[in-house]
Structures are given as C-alpha cells and as structure tokens.
Amino acid sequence: MAATNVAKQRSMRQEQLRELLSKQKLVEKVLDTAIKMDEQGASMEQTELQALRASAEIRLKLINKYLPDLKSQELTGPDGDALVVSVLKKRFDGVE
After folding, report:
1. Within a 10 A sphere around the Cβ of 18, how many other Cβ atoms?
2. I want to staple 37 with a disulfide (CB 3.0 to 4.6 A). Which of 20, 41, 56, 57 is the partner?
3. Structural domain containing residue 31
C-alpha cells in the first residue's frame, strides 16, 4: 500500500511540475530563441550568440527533465494498476 501511495504522490508532483513548466512557456521561449538565432545569428556578437545558445540548452534540459519522452511512455490502467487489453475478433464474411 505504501508503494502505491508513493507512486500516486510522485505522479501528482510530476503533474504539478508539468503545469508549472507549461505556464512558464519554456518551449515557446526555446522556439523564439531558435528563430532569433536563425534570423540574426550572422550579425550577432559571438558572446551574444553563445549566451542565447546556453539559455536555450538550459530550457531544453528543464523541459526534458520533467516532460517524458513519448517514445518511452509507460501505459498503466486506472490508479496505476496493470493495463488490461481485450482483443475482440470480428469476421465480416458472415461466418460467426
């Protein structure tokens, strides 16, 4: 029972962090920085360009830390229980 409580609390904290990061619009800021670097990068000072790059990398690390990579997303059932999959076979040739 303690393990399920810990998992529920972890899940709630993750959701709160996702909400906080979403409100900070980190993804939009990274995209804005990338556009700025693309459009004005050639005319920028090297130090300014490095500062923008570092800022974008820090934001990306924050995003990657709290938002899961979708290709490694774990699927669970309600309340973190095991996921039950049912297979229904349907024939369309009139034979049952």
Report:
1. 14
2. 41
3. 2-80
- Predicted pLDDT at 53: 93
31-35-39 Cα angle (round to 5): 175
Q: Provide the CB-side half-sphere exposure for 24 (13 A, CA).
A: 13
- Checking 3-8 for CB contacts under 8 A at 24+ apart, the result is 4/79, 4/80, 7/80, 8/79, 8/80
Q: Is residue 95 part of a domain?
A: no
Mean pLDDT over the full length of the chain:
82
* Closest CA relative to residue 1, chosen from 79, 86, 94: 79
Q: How many domains does the chain have?
A: 1
The stretches in the chain having pLDDT less than 70 are 1-3, 66-73, 95-96
Q: Are the C-beta atoms of residues 57 and 87 closer than 8 Å to each other?
A: no
Q: Answer whether residue 71 is part of any domain.
A: yes
pTM (two decimals): 0.53
